[in-house]
């Protein structure tokens, strides 16, 4: 399955949710999560994220390995999201990387 990792934290651009064919994104307070049992590994979401937060679980950078379990757990406790909304304005979100 694919995993949302640290760059999403305090950003939530939500470009990813629009392209997912199986609507498997769930929204937490600070970031989004992918439900691994629903993700079909189509990779459509990967290039959509302006901060490159989405990885196949096998390609997750070592320092973000814990996000695999976090996505699995939190996606089950969070509401589904399949429509784009405004990104967060948190200072920790690297807006300079956002594509125009
Ligand atoms: Fe959805 Fe495909 Fe991304 Fe999985 S890889 S979360 S199925 S868009
Ligand atoms: Fe997060 Fe990137 Fe989606 S910042 S909400 S994973 S487009």
TrEMBL record:
Keyword Ribosomal protein belongs to the record: no
Protein name: Ferredoxin
Function in brief: Ferredoxins are iron-sulfur proteins that transfer electrons in a wide variety of metabolic reactions.
Record InterPro entries: 4Fe4S_Fe-S-bd, 4Fe4S_Fe_S_CS, 7Fe_ferredoxin, Fd_C, RnfB_subfamily
Positions of the UniProt region annotated as Disordered: 77-100
Signal peptide annotation: none
Cofactor: [3Fe-4S] cluster; [4Fe-4S] cluster
Matches recorded under Pfam families: DUF3470 (PF11953), Fer4 (PF00037)
Source taxon at top rank: Bacteria
Keywords, comma-separated and alphabetical: 3Fe-4S, 4Fe-4S, Electron transport, Iron, Iron-sulfur, Metal-binding, Repeat, Transport
UniProt xrefs under Gene3D superfamilies: 3.30.70.20
Organism of derivation: Paludisphaera mucosa
Domain 4Fe-4S ferredoxin-type: 30-59
Entry-linked PROSITE patterns: 4FE4S_FER_1, 4FE4S_FER_2
């Amino acid at each position: 399955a694919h995993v949302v990792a640290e760059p999403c934290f305090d950003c939530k651009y939500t470009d990813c949710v629009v392209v997912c064919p199986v609507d498997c994104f769930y929204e937490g307070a600070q970031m989004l999560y992918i439900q691994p049992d629903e993700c079909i590994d189509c990779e459509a979401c990967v290039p959509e994220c302006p901060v490159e937060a989405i990885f196949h679980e096998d390609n997750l950078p070592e320092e973000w390995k814990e996000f695999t379990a976090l996505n699995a757990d939190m996606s089950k406790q969070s509401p589904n999201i399949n429509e784009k909304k405004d990104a967060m304005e948190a200072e920790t979100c690297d807006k300079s990387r956002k594509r125009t």
